[in-house]
Amino acid sequence: MARRKLVYEGKAKILYEGPEPGTLVQYFKDDATAFNAEKKDVIDGKGALNNILSEFFMKGLNTLGVPTHFIKRLNMREQLIREVEIVPLEVIVRNYAAGTLAKRLGLEEGTALPRPIVEFCLKDDALGDPLVAEEHILAFNWASQQDLDDMFVLAHRVNDFLSGVMYGVGIRVADFKIEIGRVYDGDFSHLVIADEISPDSCRLWDLKTGEKLDKDVFRRNLGSLTDAYAEVARRLGVLPKIAVPISKPTLIN
Ligand code: C5P
After folding, report:
1. What are the pLDDT digits (tens) for 89-107?
2. Rounded to whole angstroms, what are the CA distances from 161 to 69, 174, 191?
3. pTM for the complete prediction?
């Protein structure tokens, strides 16, 4: 059997050539990194959990008419996606102060923001993905004014969907990051949600206890990362049966 062609390897995922032109296979690794890869580990089961969680969120968005690159999940670690041209910006949406925003503005973590705030960071590991203003984006032509308008709309639609779905299972979405891809269709192009949406790229807090159910568990050594991600998957009803701890036998009448 011929070996498939590797297209790109990132910190948490690998992209392979897909079965049809214009498609790719996205493989979720078990590697965890934080602080621009200064902290690293391999965490058994993380890739499979992010694969099913990203499938859940992307499918939901597709169903609601918010376009994503997701086509279908292939197996426990891989999904088929549309090949897109990645916009070189990370789009961050924040509902509550945390992370770099809390630090930058001296806000206490957990403070509700007056309204959702959308931020853009330049995707550049060597520079540590610096925060950039719309002025920089337009001046350096990383995206057009139309793209910016479309990215704000996409960011808010994803925020409303994610926040609503997670509220339904008792989880607060403090913030998250999405990546945006450009898809060409003849002379036209449009933007879609790309990459992944998973607890690796969100801050998820239990509504009642404030318990962290996201990558901060790894960043801050707060316990088992897979237990936290599995709890999110369990609440959403997508935890694979194989990963469910064996329960006591039950009597069948
Ligand atoms: O670190 P910061 O507070 O700016 O992160 C905001 C949100 O974006 C967090 O949910 C974090 O997990 C996510 N993020 C990410 N990838 C990055 C930077 C931030 O997923 N490179």
Report:
1. 999 999 999 999 999 999 9
2. 17, 13, 18
3. 0.94
